[in-house]
Specification:
Layout lengths: L2 H11 L11 H12 L5 H7 L1 H9 L7 H44 L3 H47 L5
Helix pairs in contact: 3-4, 5-6
């Protein structure tokens, strides 16, 4: 989600998502870069994500025990699921924002209770999606911390001299 999209959303809905939901400019740039690179394109994601790049391109070149590989692979699945969850929630938020924009136009044209309720419900749906996105971001961060520790141990292990 581009930074301008966040500002537009905040202006359109009156909901502050930049400060209260933990979005910062670095994360916005990272997300925007992922979408520019095709989000679902594996090479684009790998180019933006150092953890996945190491796990896909470098880890298998290292001398690592199978139990460590299995542990890393399990955590990698959690990490990828969380990444996909964040991307899915972002897509759903964008769809809901577009629908909210249309509903607000209809509300201005027809001041009916149904249109007002539609706008209120869409705002609640967006807030719910933002909460789900935050949960997925926390899951991603937790998995990333575990993977960083494992990657550090793997890389340091490959730097220590091997005794014959």
């Amino acid at each position: 989600m581009a930074l301008s999209t966040i500002k537009w959303f905040e202006a359109a809905t009156g909901i502050d998502i930049s400060g209260t939901r933990g979005l910062n400019e670095e994360y916005v740039r990272e997300t925007e870069a992922r979408h520019i690179n095709g989000g679902s394109d594996d090479e684009g994601v790998l180019a933006q994500d150092q953890i996945l790049w190491f796990l896909e391109k470098e880890m298998w070149k290292k001398d690592v025990s199978w139990d460590v590989r299995e542990r890393v692979e399990e955590t990698k699945k959690e990490y990828i699921n969380a990444l996909n969850g964040v991307a899915f929630q972002e897509d759903q938020i964008l769809l809901l924002v577009e629908e909210l924009e249309r509903a607000r136009v209809l509300l201005k044209m027809k001041q009916t209770e149904d249109h007002r309720l539609k706008v209120v419900n869409l705002k609640l749906d967006i807030t719910d999606r933002l909460d789900k996105k935050l949960l997925k971001q926390k899951q991603r961060d937790k998995a990333a911390d575990l993977l960083r520790k494992e990657i550090t141990a793997i890389q340091l292990g490959s730097l220590t001299p091997q005794t014959p």
